[in-house]
Amino acid sequence: MSYMLEVDNLKKHFALTGGLLRRKVGAVKAVDGVSISVRKGETFGLVGESGCGKTTFAKTCLRLLNPNSGSIFLDAPDEVKERIRYLRSEHKEGSELRGLRRQWDLAVFRGQKLREMRRRMQLVYQDPTRSLNPRMLIKDILTEPLAVQHLATGASAIKRVSEILQRVGLGDRFLYRYPHEFSGGQRQRIAIARALITTPRLVFLDEPTSAVDVSVRAQLLNLFQGLRKDFDLTYLYISHDLSVVECISDRVAVMYLGKIVELASTPELYTRPLHPYSVALFSAIPIPDPTAKRKRVVLTGEVPSPVNPPAGCRFHPRCESASQICQSQEPQLVDVGNGHMVACHLFVK
Amino acid sequence: MSEERFLRIKDLDLRFYTYEGVVEALDKVNLHIKNGETIGVVGETGCGKSVTGLSELVLIPSPGRIEGGKVLLNRDGKWVNLLRQKDAFLRNVRGNEISMIFQDPKSALNPVYTVENQIGEAITHHRMEEMCKRVIDNSEKAKEELKRTDLSDKEKAKLRKNVLSNREKRFLERIIDYPEDTIARWASRIPVLNRFKKRLNKEVKKEVVRMLKDMRIPDPERVAEMYPHELSGGMAQRVVIAMGLCCNPSMLIADEPTTNLDVTVQLQILTLIKELKKEYGTTIQYITHDMGVVAEMCDRVAVMYAGNVVELADVFEVFKNPLHPYTRALLECIPRPGAEFKSIEGFVPSLISPPEGCRFNDRCPFAMDKCVSVKPEFVAAKAGHQVLCHLYTGEAK
Amino acid sequence: MVEERPLGTTLLTLLEATVGLIEINLGILMLLVGNPLPTVLGPIDAFSTGILLVFLSIMSLFTAYSLWAGGPTNWIQAVLVLVIDAIAKIMLVVTYGTSWIALAATLELDLIALYYLTRPSTTPFFGGDGVRSVLEKFRIEMQPRIKELRFTFRLVRKSPLSIVGAAIIIFYVLIAIFAPYLADPTAAIAQTGDPNMMWKDNELLRLSSVQPQLPSVNHPFGTMEGQYDIYYGCIWGARQALRIGLYVAGGSMLIGLAIGVFASYYGGWIDEVLMRFTDIIFAFPGLILSMTLVVILVPLGFNRLDAVMLSLTIVGWPGYSRLIRGEILRIKNEDYVEAAKSVGCSDLRVIYKHILPNSIYPILIVFTLDIGTVVLGAAALSFLGIGAPPGYADWGQIIALSMNWIYGSPSNPFGNWYTFVIPGLFISMFVMGWNLLGDALRDILDPTMRRK
Predict the structure, then answer these.
(1) d(CA A193, CA C263)
(2) Nearest alpha carbon to residue A54 among A302, A286, A252
(3) Which residues have a Cβ under 8 Å from the Cβ of A238 and sit 6 or more positions away?
(4) Neighbour subunits, B (≥3 Cβ pairs < 8 A)
(5) For B362-372, b where at least 16 C-beta lie within 10 A, e where not — what string?
(6) Would the CA dihedral through C305, C310, C315, C320 be positive or negative?
(7) What is the pLDDT of residues C391-422, one digit of tens each?
(8) What is the pLDDT along chain B (397 residues), one digit of tens a residue?
(9) Is-contact B319 A288, C-beta < 8 A?
(10) CA C135 to CA C337: how far, in whole Å?
(11) Across the interface, do C357 and A149 touch by the CB < 8 Å criterion?
(12) In this complex, is the C-beta atom of C154 within 8 Å of any C-beta atom belonging to chain A?
């Protein structure tokens, strides 16, 4: 089983400075050791609430933010990945490791390699009103990736743009207009077109349907499914809308305070959530059926700040089943069968 | 929940006069709200649900103008048309009888005032008499207590803090008797003279803390002194709800209060609203686009589309037996795992030049010739279930 | 697909055509040089020539763009045409002087080029993608931008103050361009050789020595100390005002933008260091600092007016830096900037294409207001005696000359009102015009108000 995207122990901390000499007084541990593996062609869902670090994670993978540590592999051969992991675990931080990483590890790419990588991974933002430059024509917005990546210019670029616009369901009349002349759903399609125009292999979708209406949402979701088939794409779908993630993803990971707490295939996770946080999360989804019986787990308190996460298991202050060990030791992600991974002391045998 | 009606909106027309043209935001909207119920107003962006709420408080921003219809409030059996009332009357209604909370808690709170100041402002504006009376009562009680001989010095000092001087007492009594009195108002603004307000402010703060505790906010004294940017989303929304309920209004209009919040925080807030409703018995108008929340919270549902109320019925009815084609389509749009995503073809019509007949006709699978040119009437297809559709006007009445 | 002709062939074809056109024009000129045609408007001086040259350069730019729109390899060709065009113009103007005919000839060159471009294009040179001509393509490209512009103008029309402001400015620009016709410079040139120095009425000098004279037929606004004609000074002073205003405001804007963009985009210690420079300049009161700078610069060899302009520029750029810094810090974190980075845009491209167009509007507004402020500052310096040399046609200078006569004789205290009121009116109207324009621009360009 070959994985297309493999992320090893990615960490992204934002330093907090304070005091007279602007010394580092702390860090916001937005992403604190996240590892995932995404298969080619699947839709991998990443859910969590605000502040859990899922958007930061996506941006770090795309190198819009620079990771503090960890590796990102896109289409790297298995032997290379094995070798790097082996060298890492043996602490052999020599030139071999450096050389391999410069060649294959997205986390350390620079210059030309970095730019090339951007062709293969793209991001669709949540709010299309903010992610499209209000003073640029649609034509310019869409030809820009081609120009920057030296893929096409002039008439051939326009042709490609027209093709992409057709594929996302918009016509040619959209070319010479400004973004504010379109509705939210149309703008999101333009953003999707921009992401696809360099024919990427992996597309990160950061809450792409939360800024649009319910009836348009379904159109966009159908579009995603169609495009996945046509362009042979792999998706990383980030959202806090659990019902949508359920319908579109093959596998789902739940994040809390910068760490993954549970990971499983979609049907498995939604019917049998194990981690107490996942249980609370899924029970909080409002069910559009007034007759349905609801078993609600209402969480107390608020999400703690990522600056000072609680010691041990990060969820223990809000967890009903917390015990002594939860306060001191952080649980690791373990496989409890069927590819279902949980990070909770309740499930460690 | 009684059958008695609390508020009625009759044939409301609202237009916005913009550079691009006249936007017919609301077109003969009919809605009635019963005492003590929770009514949900559902619809997508631009359908007019928010402006309906604003119309009930006559708070339409320019360039909007209410062009027709009535907003009738039931006051002790008499119906009062809020659209024809003077500003002073409306200011009394807003916050006191009908209160509104908005979508983004952070922008509903003024960033330069503490929580205590903001909630206190609402209390001071509407419940001034009550607060003054309380302060005076406290003072009398303290005077009585001081007559006892068995008090320690510390206790005596504490009680003396509550005793008002004669001048202060006269000020407060003046405020009670003449709430609009200029002298009292001016005196309260001049630094040295407003010392009489010290105890009044303390009393208001006590009330604020009590409200925050009611909102199940932990450590309310500390939260009362916080600024809005120090609060998290859920906490800020609770503060906004406290502001809305502090004067014990008969009705609360909630305009998408949980849309910006995380799902677990949303659950907390919804649970809170349900509990508060049990305690206070407020009528709630819940505006949202989320059918799940509607199913959770509401007793009756009004579905809106492009400036019309297209269906109005009991919540079970709407989900089990939706009559209007738009409601049906909307319910089908809800994503279900394993099934293909269904969407509604076409786009919402532009409200600048809305269609002549039924506004849904270009997207409706059941559209007839009549629908293109003739506007349907809002009739009761069954008891308690009203629809705006030609399919049901035949069998009506 | 743009047909990729061999570069050499295309170059040659273009070169041939251009050289041919130049030859034709030179021929016509040679014919005319011997028989100068009396022109309707008479001689035009360097200032107006400057403006017309600017206009013609814009036309050349258009020519270049049209060629460029054809395809990637054409930029060389475009540059070549541009260069040849510019050289031709300069040659003609320099050789034949500032003669109207010479300028007309270069205009003809551009019109011919335009004709070639607007013809239905049969050559694959411009890309056979079905567009009838390059001009058509240009029009289609510009259509949405024109629509935006139209919307802006509608807003302008709705605001009467902006029209008043614009009218005032146009009035001044016209005065400046047609100064030689409104106030005959022959007397001034006869006396000092430089039309920018006011002329003295020697007759009146003999009659009434240096006493300012009331307005009369010869001197519509009167004269001032030394019998300088106020009317002449005010009219030609408009030129100085525009020159100082545009150069100083423009210069400080460009410097301020460059430094501000660089500092705020990269942040960190670069930001800190550069902002300290702005702080240093802010610490001094503007007028005093500019006075000091003028006093330093003049002995270094700058002529006085240039020194004034340079010092005002140095004092003025930090304001723009601060302004653009605020805007950029706001826009830097917007989603579309990040999206541009995520497709691989270089820093320069992000700044130029994404950040600047969205942040430039407050700068433009301040620019228009600044022109007025700068002129006031220059007038103040002239009044203090540090600005233009005495006798120079500059509004501040005129008021400086009237310093001794502000209070007339005890029996007639306002007897010499015309010496300072009239130039004062000119200055205040000028500043007011720019202020009104700037205010109107602000109302129009403010994005929150635009879409009301």
Answers:
(1) 34
(2) A252
(3) A45, A46, A47, A54, A55, A58, A204, A205, A206, A207
(4) A, C
(5) ebbeebeeebe
(6) positive
(7) 788 888 888 888 877 777 777 777 777 778 88
(8) 456 788 888 899 999 988 778 888 998 899 999 988 999 999 888 888 889 999 998 888 888 888 888 898 888 888 888 888 888 888 888 878 899 998 888 888 999 999 999 998 888 888 888 888 888 888 888 888 888 777 788 877 777 777 777 877 887 887 788 777 777 677 777 777 777 778 888 889 999 999 898 888 888 898 899 899 888 888 899 999 998 888 888 899 999 998 878 888 888 899 999 998 998 888 999 999 888 899 988 999 999 999 999 999 999 999 999 999 999 988 888 877 777 778 887 778 888 888 888 888 888 888 888 888 888 888 888 888 999 888 887 644 3
(9) yes
(10) 32
(11) no
(12) no
Collapse the DSSP code of B258 into the 3-class scheme (helix H, G, I; strand E, B; otherwise coil) and give the result.
Answer: coil
B366, B358 contact by CB (below 8 A): no
Q: Enter the pTM of the model.
A: 0.76
Encode pLDDT of A81-99 as tens digits.
888 888 888 887 788 888 8
Count CA atoms closer than 13 A to A54's CA, side-chain side: 26
Report the alpha-carbon distance of residue C400 to residue C308 in Å, rounded: 16
- Amino acid at residue number A97: L
- What residues are paired with A260 via a beta bridge? A255
Q: How far is CA C85 from CA B184, C57, C109, in A?
A: 81, 9, 8
Q: Write down which chains contact chain A via at least 3 CB pairs under 8 A.
A: B, C
A106: DSSP letter: G
- The domain limits of chain A are 3-252, 267-347
| Among candidate residues A6, A81, A71, A57, the one with its CA nearest the CA of residue A36 | A6
Positive or negative, the CA dihedral C267, C270, C276, C279 is negative
Contacts of A37 (CB under 8 A, 6+ apart): A3, A5, A6, A7
The answer to whether ipTM exceeds 0.90 is no
Q: H or E segment at B64?
A: strand B64-75
Tokens 């005010």 correspond to what residue?
A: C234
- Beta carbons of A284 and B271 less than 8 Å apart: no
Q: What is the DSSP string of C176-209?
A: HHTHHHHS--HHHHHHHS-TTBPPB-HHHHHHHT
For residue C258, give the amino acid letter.
A
Q: Does C285 touch chain A (CB under 8 A)?
A: no
Hey, CA dihedral for B168, B174, B176, B180, is it positive or negative? negative
SS3 label, residue C172: helix
* A215: chain B residues, CB-CB within 8 Å: 44, 329-330, 333, 343-344
Residue A149's φ and ψ, nearest 5 degrees, are -90, 5
Q: Are C239 and C181 in contact (CB under 8 A)?
A: no
Single out the residue of A206, A60, A57, A227 nearest to residue A131, CA to CA: A206
Contact (CB, 8 A) for A241 and A207:
yes
List, in order of start, the domains of chain B with CATH numbers. 5-110+229-392 (3.40.50.300), 115-226 (no CATH)
**CATH homologous superfamily for the domain A3-252:** P-loop containing nucleotide triphosphate hydrolases (3.40.50.300)
Helix (H, G, I), strand (E, B) or coil at A33: strand
**Of all helices (H) and strands (E), which one includes residue C164?**
helix C160-177
Min Cα distance C143 → chain B (Å) is: 19
Split at pLDDT 50, 70, 90, the class of C155 is low
Kind of pairing, strands B300-305 and A121-124? Answer: unpaired
- The number of angstroms, rounded, from the C-alpha of A348 to the middle of its chain's C-alpha atoms is 27
Specify the range with the lowest mean pLDDT, choosing from B122-131, B356-365, C84-93, C428-437. C84-93
> B-chain residues within 8 Å CB-CB of A182?
none
For chain C, domains (ranges, CATH) are 7-145 (no CATH), 186-450 (1.10.3720.10)
| CA B122 distance to own-chain centroid | 14
